[in-house]
């Protein structure tokens, strides 16, 4: 196993977390799974005509879109839980307290991870501390 030396998570935990995410990744979709999702026939008609595709090509494109969406959700879960693996004591919900010394201790830095956005917030000490 490779040494990542990330500091906030052990090498074993990062390896396990990456492996778990990879196991959830979809590479294809079967007809049963495809039919679980509501498909907009109007959108498929527009896609077919605009992109010059026949019905089979349009459905294959929709299958790829669904697979990609599932994989993006897996990555979103990866982002939201990676800090929890290493520092459960500093992680509440989707907030992770970053222990960076601040000269006058008037600010605390929090990392907030939400799907498609990674934001960093500064909170005044009067706000609730983790």
Straight-line N-to-C gap: 33 Å
Widest β-sheet, arrangement of strands = 1-2-3-4
Structural class: alpha+beta
Largest sheet: 4 strands, antiparallel
Coarse morphology: elongated
Structure, explained:
- This protein has 130 residues and is of the alpha+beta class.
- It has 2 domains: 1-86, no CATH class; 88-130, no CATH class.
- Helix content is 48%, strand content 17%.
- It contains 4 helices and 4 strands.
- It has helices at 11-24, 31-36, 41-50, 55-86, and strands at 91-92, 95-98, 107-114, 117-124.
- It has a 4-stranded antiparallel beta sheet with strand order 1-2-3-4.
- Strand 1 and strand 2 form a beta hairpin.
- The model is unreliable at 115-130 (pLDDT under 50).
SSE diagram, text form:
Elements: H1 11-24, H2 31-36, H3 41-50, H4 55-86, E1 91-92, E2 95-98, E3 107-114, E4 117-124
Antiparallel strand pairs: 1-2, 2-3, 3-4
Helix pairs in contact: 1-4, 3-4
Provide a short characterization of the protein structure.
Helix content is 48%, strand content 17%.
Features:
alpha+beta, 4 strands, single chain, 130 residues, disordered C terminus, 4 helices
């Amino acid at each position: 196993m490779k040494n990542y030396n990330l500091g906030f998570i052990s090498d074993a935990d990062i390896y396990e977390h990456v492996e778990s995410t990879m196991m959830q990744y979809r590479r294809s979709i079967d007809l049963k799974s495809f039919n679980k999702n509501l498909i907009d026939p109007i959108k498929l008609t527009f896609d077919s005509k605009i992109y010059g595709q026949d019905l089979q090509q349009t459905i294959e494109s929709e299958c790829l879109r669904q697979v990609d969406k599932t994989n993006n959700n897996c990555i979103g879960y990866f982002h939201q839980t990676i800090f929890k693996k290493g520092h459960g004591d500093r992680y509440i919900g989707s907030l992770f307290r970053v222990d960076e010394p601040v000269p006058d201790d008037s600010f605390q830095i929090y990392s907030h991870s939400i799907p498609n956005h990674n934001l960093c917030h500064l909170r005044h000490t009067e706000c609730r501390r983790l």
